[in-house]
Input
Amino acid sequence: MEAIRTQGLTQNFGDNTAVNNLTLSVKAGEVFGLVGPDGAGKTTVMRLLAGLMAPTSGDAWVYDCHTVKDPEQLRNHISYMPQRFGLYQDLTVQENIDFYADLYNVSRQTRKEKIPELLAFSNMTAFRDRQAGKLSGGMKQKLALACALVHTPQVLLLDEPTNGVDPLSRRDFWRILYRLLEEKVTIFVSTAYLDEAERCTRIGLLHKGRMILSGTPDEVKKHMSGALVEIRCNEPRQVLASLRESMTLVAAGLFGAKIHLVLDGDASQALAAVKEKLATLGVEAETEIVVPSLEDVFISQILSSEGSVSDA
Output
């Protein structure tokens, strides 16, 4: 069953096309990750799905509720957690959750059962009387999630929920999301973190408002065009500059202290060509063909579409 469906969804802001003819389908009970850099259009997609704006053209449905024509029904199905969730800093954890329960007309009986469950679920029980403004960044995000879940939505829209959160809190946040899957909640999450994309059931790579690739993480990795060669050497930045000047590359970039090159053709031929070029340049290096990460694939797809190579 489809939880989310869009057809030709487009949003223009003047001459800028933020979302360009987006067609996608998200199954009920899966985690779909919308992945892309800043400015890719992720937040606009979220706002369109949440019914906060009408698209320039195209349509979107959440459990057969049209996001523009059925706003009241849509509200009963979804919960939207924007990047800056509206927590009230001077209210306690408990008071914030109570406030959102009021907004969604959650019954008193349901609250008695649901709120203690949410506090335990997010490991916030011990902090229920602490003001939201005195919580850490990670704890604020968990409180925001608890508020978003207080009316038991079928679809959870999360716009870069772990942006600026420390790695440990990010891990805890994702543990909570996985537990939501056991309750058949469909999660649509946007992120700029490629390691988080690996946690999703399926992902879509968004670039300049267009979906350039979608599928499971493993399926997406198979779309890597060409062979990926990893180089470990001294002064990698200077070596990368020399390789760019002297070789035809699909994509190239620095990954930490390593160089990743994407070349057209067979893997063995690509590796041999790189070794020969490094020898010509007088560079001592270790080279090997490596399995591409999502980051490799994403950068390769973007740079290939733009016809250039760049640092990662």
Observations:
- Confidence is low (pLDDT under 50) at residues 308-312.
- The chain is about 35% helix and 30% strand.
- The two ends are 38 Å apart (CA to CA).
